[in-house]
Amino acid sequence: MMTFIWICLLLVILSMGALLFRVFRGPSTPDRLIALDAIGVMLISVIALVSILFETGFFIDVILLIAIISFIGTVSFSKFIERGEIIERDRTS
Asked: Where are the beta strands (DSSP E) in the chain?
């Protein structure tokens, strides 16, 4: 069982390396955004696998925090790509 977890951990880390390549060499900004979001998911996977290896539930809070930050970052970047600004202000005054 532990060998399988180590193999999964290695594959996830290799996938993160490929996604980092896409972040730096992506053909467009949306491709880079999707790669960043996928890196967040992969990071959650790595932490979950490490939590299984260490047989502890301490990292569950860290996983939740990374998921929330990743979601907020993805929404912010998406809104910036779509409209060019994140926070809209009323400029009629």
From this structure: none
Angle at 47 between CA 9 and CA 39, to 5 degrees: 80
Q: How far apart are CA 49 and CA 4, in angstroms?
A: 10
Tokens of 27: 């053909």
Q: How many C-beta neighbours within 10 Å does residue 14 have?
A: 11
Tokens 């993805």 sit at which residue?
A: 74
Determine contact, residues 12/46, Cβ cutoff 8 Å: yes
Q: What is the pTM of this model?
A: 0.81
Structure tokens belonging to residue 28 = 């467009």
pLDDT digit string, tens, across residues 16-67: 999 999 999 988 888 888 999 999 999 999 999 999 999 988 899 999 999 9
Q: Is the CB of residue 32 less than 8 Å from the CB of residue 73? A: no
Distance separating alpha carbons of residues 22 and 18, to the nearest angstrom = 7
